[in-house]
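Most newcomers find our protein records easier to grasp once they have seen one. Sequence and backbone structure share a record, each on its own labelled line. Nothing more is needed to start thinking about how sequence determines fold. As an example, a complete record with its sequence and its structure tokens follows.
=====
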Amino acid sequence: MELAVTNTGDTAFDFTAALHTYLLCDDVRRAKLGGLYDVRYLDTVSGAEHTQEIDPFSFAGEIDRIYFDVDSMLSLSTAMGRMAISAEGFPDVVVWNPGPTKAAKLADLPDDDWLRLLCVEAGVIQRPVTLAPGQDWAARQSFDA
């Protein structure tokens, strides 16, 4: 997947972006995401910053983290198989799952569907991109089985 932005205006502008990729899992509690060891992240559920100390790591409930300056390929392992996740031009990664409590409050998500998804979103969040008039920017995320 690729996101491309062109400034067609007369003034520069800043933006942030993320590709909201919902990846199918058989059971997210058995999924393992690798490649983020020693990467700094903001846990937006608690508001605290940490460094990832376990790799690969698994999921037990709600997770909403922004990993900064990710420079390695990620791997997602589930009972359905293994997937390599890479990005170009997106320095940050959002890892999200609503968990059971938040899923029950989301009108467009059946209560138990939190078990079947994991978002691993390529993004540019920490440092917004600035585009001058006429300037282009593009970034991409790839998934390989």
